[in-house]
Design brief:
By secondary structure, this protein is α/β, with parallel strands linked by helices. It has one domain: TIM Barrel (Alpha-Beta Barrel), CATH 3.20.20.80. 43% of the residues lie in helices and 13% in strands. α12 packs parallel to α13. It is globular, with a radius of gyration of 21 Å. The N terminus is likely disordered.
Length: 369
Amino acid sequence: MVILKFISIFFLTSIIYSIPDANVKALWIVRDHMTNPDLIDEALGFAENNGFNHIFAQVRGRGDSFYNSKFVPKSILVDPNFDPLNYLINKCKSKNIKVHAWINVYYLWSSKKHPPQNDHLFFQRPEWIDQEKDDKYILNRSYLNKDKDILLDGEGFFLAPTNPDVKDYLINVISELSGNYHIDGIHYDYIRYHSLDYGYNKVGFSFFSEMNDYDDNYLKDNFNRIFSDFKRNAITEFVKIANTQIKINLPNCIISAAVKPNIYNAKLNYFQEWDLWLSAGYVDWAVPMNYATDNNDFIQNMYMIKDNLPKKYHDKIIVGISTYNQSPRSAGKKISKLKRMRFNNISIFSYNTMVENPNYWRRLRKYLY
């Protein structure tokens, strides 16, 4: 059945489309298609045959790696002797496809079962995990009990951006990755807080307390704003330092970030001031994940970007289009609208849909070309 599915994919993708270099046509390849050479070859073949000129290949999922690292445990889905990222880079050397290493920055774990690696940060650095205020489950480290399933809150466990040790660790991740691999880009995902209520990591909050006088009436009256600024600045500081480190190792590396599409929602609820990152040059591209299925919501997000970002940055916007939650026609109509709005750079999320339903791509590709 699997063989027939892949044969169907490549039968439907036998025509190679020529895409101008000026237009970014990117494809997100999730880590379950980065586990062995055959799956990587199939994903790469699909991308090449259908005019995609950039790949966001997930190489850091939940605190593990799909590349060789001295301190990040490799995913158990990958043979210890196989380096998926190196394989992908070598396969793309003769192709018109740029490879971006897609990393989940703060996302650490999302399963009810415990990580299989004993050296996973989940076990090794529980003091790095972010939390809501007075979250006893996190504070008491009850989740470390291997005799019980993990109780998940929303998406799961995040590293704390406010913890200085987390920042140093992630800079080391970035430094190692950009120093050891000649990649075309590094793509940040989950570069945000879990939600508005998070940010109360014990170490991070102690750091905030040392910076502020709690007896000061101004702080008491303006706590939410001051604390929000602190949380927001923690991520921006990481993005700024990471930019410097990456550019030292790879001066031409394209730094991009998958971000919430509503600029104000991103900034206020997830502390993602990505418009500043773009204007300050901390990232080269912003990739708003405009996964709204309703056309009005989708268009409203785009007009918010268009109206609030100077025109010179519009070509640095790579609009994320979802395929997992809408029909090919619905996704295609959004692509057509983007063209009319002069947003010509897109990324498709994700390759998984094309594997699961080859007919999806046959119906969608006409909107791209």
